[in-house]
Amino acid sequence: MIKIDHLKFTYDDKKDVIEDLSLEIKKGSWVSILGHNGSGKSTLAKLLVGLLKAESGDIFVDGIEMSEQNVHQIRKKIGIVFQNPDNQFVGVTVKHDIAFGLENMQVPRKEIVERVEKYASLVGMKDYLLKEPQQLSGGQKQRVAIAGALAMHKDVIIFDEATSMLDPEGVREVTNLIKNLNTEFNQTIITITHDLDFALKSDYAFILKEGKLIGSGKPSELFLDEALLKSSKLNIPEGLQIYLDCLKDPNLKENKALLEALWAFNLNK
Questions:
Q1: What phi and psi values does residue 132 have, to the nearest 5 degrees?
Q2: E strands in the chain
């Protein structure tokens, strides 16, 4: 469980980037944190892993308070996968990259080998262990980054715009992997995104605007508030817009088969 209580953060004593933010993320859930550029969502991700220090307010991870004394303990629980896969690769091969964090943790060599094999298999990269970074696609590099986080036995993985630089095939790869991690392995997932199609697949969503929480709920309910989506400056995907337009039409909104088909289309894109 992650609890954020009245969090505030400001860059260079200017306008608040995070302003009086409070929310909770349940263990085993997949939560999307949405917002336009400048909404504070990526700043929140960095606050959650202790890369930034809040001006005021509290962050608790499994009851442990974020502080200078506890930050390393919290980082053992939370991993983060960033936007650009090329910036994340630190090893000369896939095998070395997955092992990198474990070596820093001084995990015994035999266990490192076992974990590398296990999590490379889990993300579908076992056959690529000896490959170099330039031989991988963007989606494959993200899979390696995810394997590295899983190998360190993180309770929570944050994906900070982790699909925004991928081609459609890469997005599908990473999305399916996230769904599998969450549903099959009960991994707590936080996706930082502005992509409503992607967020539709999560259990719960929070929408930020200028550092404030302006909406929260299940995507299937929250995203029906067209005014909220537009006020947050989020781009409404064409499929979702068609669904919302049908809900406004007196005749079409009574056509349950049509609405169900349109909603299924949005969920399965």
A1: -95, 160
A2: 2-10, 16-25, 30-34, 56-61, 64-65, 78-81, 156-160, 188-193, 204-209, 212-217
Residue 33: exposure state from Cβ atoms within 10 A (0-12, 13-18, ≥19): buried
The whole-number average pLDDT for the span 24-52 is 94
Percent of the chain with pLDDT over 90: 59
Contacts of 66 (CB under 8 A, 6+ apart): 47, 50, 54, 58, 59, 60, 74
Report yes or no: 112 and 102 within 8 Å, Cβ to Cβ: yes
Tell me the CB-side half-sphere exposure of residue 88, using CA atoms within 13 A.
26
Identify the pLDDT of residue 166.
80
- State the pTM of this model: 0.89
Residue type, position 267, single letter: L
Closest to 150 (Cα-Cα) out of 78, 95, 74: 78
Q: pLDDT (tens digit, 9 = 90+) per residue, 209-250?
A: 999 999 999 998 999 999 999 999 998 999 999 999 998 988
Helix residue ranges, H only, 49-204: 71-75, 94-104, 109-122, 138-151, 168-185, 196-199
User: 131 and 144 in contact (C-beta within 8 Å)?
Assistant: no
Q: Is 257 exposed, middle or buried (0-12, 13-18, 19+ CB in 10 A)?
A: exposed
Mean pLDDT for the chain overall: 90
